[in-house]
Design brief:
alpha+beta, about 35% helix, eight-stranded mixed sheet, about 20% strand, single chain
């Protein structure tokens, strides 16, 4: 059977590429190894945050943003230092993406019915110089409906194309090989897996019941990264981040295994920036897991005291929400793969959010009434469930009880009550004045100058040992695997390049498998809101480029 295009991977990038191709009248075969329940891939599980520049939402919040400021921030975060080779196309993709985020991105999405939560979040705040890492202003736009709300318009477009006979979607089809004739990619070969009723994200059977072979004029690989493959993560772990963690929880299902990276490399595609990856430091074990070793990331406000496994406070700017990879490096160089937050009830009820669509039922369900309830006293229901049932939480009325519980939880008995009390008292003394040499306290007060943070994100500064703000809470933080920043090197049309820098004829890639563009659009660090956004942009670029090439 002959198709115009075969798309391998039915995540967000694959859906976008398929939708664009079908709109151009191309006949598309969409393959995915998982059951239909997992259509939309990792984007469905996401918080749905998107990086936008100078948006109406920003302007209404009093935020002055510009394309020039965003590009300055992107370069400071990316730290491109392989510009003649591995970063060459990644930097070009980055500039194109920033242009997209500052221009038609929002209008394109709202034209399909996507809407945004009015308060813009401030992720990756940096804490260095103006040209260093971090967002100078809030840019994290939460989709109304979170990840599912972002996936839906593209799923709807694909399903309509299926009805129109332009898209043939086949789940449980696992690609094992890209077919090649005279240097040109001509199709795919693989296994048909047994039908499976596994729910979204759950492990699915790998029993093979048949084989397939399909041919086409082009193949687009949109299969995602390696976040569920801890063995591969450790193999590629960079020395600059310290020793790879022995214990790590998974922010993505286990089928995010990177298989297609190796298969595409075997067919001639070049993988670059293997050592660049994005893992979170504020992971907690899900008390109600969907996939094995399921981890959830805390999206913290800036007030929790962050201690290493030995109970020593991390130096500036390793504060909650400021520099993910900088703090990851600091954690791993302690020789342990976990750390601690110490905070109060008043901090957790204002500052703790949990990443993911399933942990934000108010936003995912588009319930204005439930969203407004966030300003009421007490943590959100999902956070409260983790406090009550999560194994990483310790709650106590006194510091001595808290530290004893922390030592019991870790089993390492590394924490000294006197040492922790000394650091907290020193921090609390700085709260007594509106001046401070403690940069975390300065950052907390600065954050509250932004109305969005003051309303729903940052607690009024107070003493941690103030009994009126209690009880005290400690949270053991695990490393949680997430994103692959390197990948298949592609040009701005999404064509996969070979080791000589030339396109592999008939082969394209989009999404995380391509490092979200060019084999590494982010460089070393992300500004956040750029992962699902990168899938949107690369899927659109590749889909339109293939359609034009085949016209």
């Amino acid at each position: 059977m002959k198709f115009d295009v075969i798309v391998v991977g039915a995540g967000l990038a694959g859906l976008v590429a398929t939708a664009e191709l079908a709109d151009a009248g191309k006949k598309v075969l969409l393959l995915d190894q998982e059951p239909e329940a997992s259509l939309g891939g990792q984007a469905w599980w996401s918080f749905g945050g998107l990086f936008l520049i100078n948006s109406p939402e920003q302007r209404r919040m009093g935020i002055k943003d510009s394309r020039e400021l965003a590009w300055q921030d992107w370069l400071g975060a990316a730290g491109f230092d392989r510009e003649e080779d591995e970063d060459y196309w990644g930097k070009k993709w980055a500039e194109a993406y920033v242009d997209f985020a500052a221009s038609e991105k929002r209008e394109w999405l709202t034209g399909m019915g996507v809407r945004f939560f009015p308060v813009v979040g401030w992720a990756e705040r940096g804490g260095y110089t103006a040209e260093g890492h971090g967002n100078s202003v809030p840019r994290f736009h939460i989709v109304w409906g979170t990840g599912p709300g972002l996936v839906k318009p593209f799923e709807d477009r694909v399903r309509q194309a299926m009805k129109n006979g332009l898209v043939d979607y086949r789940p449980r089809h696992r690609v094992n090989e890209l077919l090649k004739e005279n240097g040109v990619i001509t199709g795919v070969r693989g296994d048909i897996l047994v039908p499976c009723n596994s729910a979204r994200g759950e492990a699915s059977s790998r029993e093979v019941i048949g084989e397939f072979e399909f041919h086409s004029s082009a193949v687009a690989v949109t299969s995602g990264g390696i976040g569920g493959n801890h063995e591969l993560i450790r193999k590629n772990w960079p020395e600059r981040l310290g020793k790879a963690p022995q214990n790590m929880i998974s922010g993505v299902p286990e089928h995010v295994d990177g298989r297609m990276l190796g298969i595409t490399e075997k067919a001639g595609g070049r993988i670059v920036n293997r050592d660049r990856m994005w893992h979170y430091t504020e992971g907690i074990k899900n008390w109600d897991p969907v996939w094995p070793n399921h981890g959830i990331r805390i999206l913290p406000g800036p007030s929790s005291l962050w201690l290493d496994a030995n109970g020593k406070r991390f130096p500036a700017p390793n504060f909650p929400g400021f520099d993910t990879l900088g703090t990851l490096e600091a954690i791993m160089k302690t020789g342990y793969d976990y750390s601690w937050f110490i905070l109060t009830q008043k901090i957790i009820e204002k500052e703790f959010a949990l990443s993911g669509s399933e942990q934000n039922p108010d936003l995912t369900g588009k319930s204005i009434k439930k969203v407004l309830a966030r300003v009421l006293p007490g943590p959100t229901a999902p956070v409260k469930a983790f406090m009550d049932k999560g194994e990483d939480f310790v709650i106590a009325n006194t510091l001595s009880e808290l530290v004893a519980g922390m030592n019991k939880l870790s089993g390492d008995n590394l924490l000294s009550l006197d040492e922790i009390e000394r650091q907290i008292l020193a921090r609390d003394r700085e709260i007594e004045n509106k001046f401070s040499k403690d940069l975390q306290i300065t950052a907390m007060r600065g954050a509250r100058n932004y109305l969005g943070d003051k309303l729903i994100r940052v607690a009024p500064p107070h003493r941690i040992l103030d009994s009126k703000k209690g009880p005290l809470i400690a949270v053991r933080l695990n490393i949680v695997s997430r994103k692959t920043l390197g990948g298949l090197q592609t040009d701005l049309s999404g064509r996969v390049l070979d080791a000589t820098g030339k396109p592999v004829p008939g082969l394209y890639a989009a999404g995380e498998v391509s490092g979200f563009g060019g084999g590494g659009i982010h460089g070393y660090r992300s500004l956040e809101g750029t992962f699902v956004g990168g899938c949107l942009f690369t899927g659109r670029q590749a889909g339109r480029a293939i359609a034009k090439e085949l016209s």
